[in-house]
Amino acid sequence: LQMIFTSALTMAEQAHQEGERLRGEILRRLQDRPEMAWLWSVPGLGAWTAAVVWAWLGDPLRFRSARQVGRYAGLDPSVHQSGEADWRGHISHHGPAILRQILVEAAWWAIRARDNPLRAFYDRVLSRLGKRRAIVAVARKLLVAAWRGWGGQRGGDGVGRGGDQKKTRGLCGSPPPPPPSPVAGRPQGRVGPPGSPVQGGRQ
């Protein structure tokens, strides 16, 4: 049994090292793309988070509203209707799970700093939503901010207009210069606290 266990640990470590190598190669290939600079400018999005958002959203102009973006990622609240009852429950979990996971991890990291709009938003909704649903709301706000900034860079003048534009004001900055190498740049660690929807891992 010990030999099986040590063999499994060795294989797991080798898989982890290969994953890190592939991640570094992906970031190296993406670092000169101008849209990565826009995504990377959103507070809370590290290089790996930006890469995952870039890969899964595809063309940001295919989404007409923040609601569509949240629904695509499965971060929209599920709606239950029965007769006259109409209430919103947990998120729908539709769409790519890895995108939700990475965004939730990024959200936990983003709210650590108390002097930013995401932390202020989290504190504002915490008592009403509870910890798990509040952090998902932060993750959804991160995604919408990334979509809006990227869509604007692509020439989508109508992207994000309306009520959702006001909600993410302050998260999308001016067009940034091309980012430095993400492999050697900003810290990529994203760890949720005990009991969070996502724990461990790196972004």
Topology:
Layout: H1 2-30, H2 34-40, H3 47-57, H4 66-73, E1 77-82, E2 85-91, H5 97-110, H6 117-129, H7 131-153, H8 163-167
E-strand count? 2
What amount of the residues lies in strands? 5-15%
Shape: globular
Strand order of the largest sheet: 1-2
- The structural class is mainly alpha
Radius of gyration: 18 Å
Distance N to C terminus: 34 Å
User: What's the helical proportion of residues?
Assistant: 40-55%
Mind explaining what this structure looks like?
By secondary structure, the chain is mainly alpha-helical. The protein contains 8 helices and 2 strands, in the order ααααββαααα. It has helices at residues 2-30, 34-40, 47-57, 66-73, 97-110, 117-129, 131-153, 163-167; strands spanning 77-82, 85-91. The protein has a two-stranded antiparallel sheet. The protein is globular and about 50 Å long.
